[in-house]
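Journal club prep — side note

Before the paper discussion, L.F. wants everyone to see what a predicted structure for a comparable chain looks like in token form. Sequence:
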Amino acid sequence: MKLSDFDFDLPEELIATRPANPRSSARLLVAAGDQLHDRRVTDLTDWLRPGDRLVLNDTRVIPARLSGLRHRASAQGAVQAKIEVTLLEPRGDGTWSALIKPLRKLKIGEEVVFSDDLRATLEAVEDGQGHLQFNCTGDDFDAALNAAGAMPLPPYIAAKRAADAQDMTDYQTVFARHAGAVAAPTASLHFDEALLAALAAKGVTFSHVTLHVGAGTFLPVKVDDISEHKMHAEWGRVSAEAAKEITATRAAGGRVIPVGTTALRLIETAARGGQIAAWEGDTDIFITPGFDFNVTDGLMTNFHLPKSTLMMLVSALMGVQQVKDIYAHAIAEKYRFFSFGDSSLLLPEAQKPA
């Protein structure tokens, strides 16, 4: 298929820069088979059945954006330069890979000071990324990063406004547990404790998996023939307990519905052999139309960027034409798009609300 098959025109004003408040009051476009229903996220209780299982990505977003100063002695005296850093992921040697701007102003061995408690030395440069060695590790590093860092808002939001203190809450799920993501699993941002309790009371069950969403999720597809696209890799883990729960749900006739494309990609990675099993590692699974889903019966997800790999994923689940219809409806009805926007519940099989 061609990249143009997943393109659409999105009015700029539909890009959300703040989430709905409260979280669960966001709009929800339910696509059940070929029928579309305009609802609210709180109406999930009308569409999910007792025995259904939601799969939640419990990754925690780190405040990966840092602003610091590089100091250097020169013939003209002491000079300094502002250095902007976006952390990407920890490396096996104890350093962090990072995007550094401007990288050319930083030399190997030079130190960048971010706060009284946090500084880093540039150890190496590889593939346009810097490898930074921080002055602290463990809990001390987490505390210093939380104090000095800002949330790594997606480019289409960062272009409109700077991250602020409210984003530390808004860009984090209520069930975030394991730190490591530099982007949020955004469909999960719609859940609050009240909604989780209401779903549990309905008989819906939950499994937690972990996929540390990386900055690669925002990389554009640059090839016209999508089969030539190289997918970025992200680290994830499906525990033996989660795999057992998902298997039991399917055996009992319940539906497995991941919340977000990250959770879907992870459980389908763990089920590549036909049945889901415990799994841990880097996944670069690329889901496009024609993909055989082994454990996914539906998907809750936000509205995605044109020509993105996530548009290809939802088209694989629902069909290319149905997704075109869903997005045309969402634009006509002025749904809010992308990370802080509204959501959708995609159910390939036709269904009426309870």
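L.F.'s comment for the group: The CA atoms of residues 269 and 285 lie 7 Å apart. Keep this in mind when we get to the figures.
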